[in-house]
Amino acid sequence: MGCFSDVTIECTGVESSISTGLWSTKPGGSYVQVGYGKAEVVFPIVAVGVKEIDIYGIFRYANDYQRALDLVAKGLVNVKPLVTHRFAFQDAVKAFETTKAGSGIKIIIECDK
Q: What 3-state class would DSSP assign to 64?
């Protein structure tokens, strides 16, 4: 890996992404864990110590959820481009396969069609 960041913000909570994020943080850098996956994960603790990385945890919804809803409701934030796929309910398996493949950002299963 040839490029290292001063600050890494990991938003998936996926174990492999956590490890990649820690490895890609430069010595003396900061790592912020925003996403939550499994309750316990394996990560490169020796690399964290040797590189002297500061790790921060953030509860991503604290004091932000209502504000985010207000911004969307007022039209100040356009979230529509985040929806990359829509599937009818009968195609739900295809929707999950698309998600598992890592395609798209937000995938919606429409139950009323």
A: coil
The predicted-structure confidence for 6-43, as pLDDT tens digits, reads as follows 999 999 999 999 999 999 999 999 999 998 889 999 99
Pairing outcome for strands 83-88 and 106-110: parallel
Is the separation of the CB atoms in 76 and 82 below 8 Å?
Answer: no
AA identity, residue 43: F
CB 58 within 8 A of CB 66: no
Q: How confident is the model at residue 110 (pLDDT cuts 50, 70, 90)?
A: very high
- Residue 82 corresponds to which amino acid? L
Q: Which residue shows structure tokens 């100040």?
A: 76
Q: How far apart, in whole angstroms, are the C-alpha atoms of residue 86 and residue 103?
A: 12
Q: Quick one: tokens of 55?
A: 């790790």
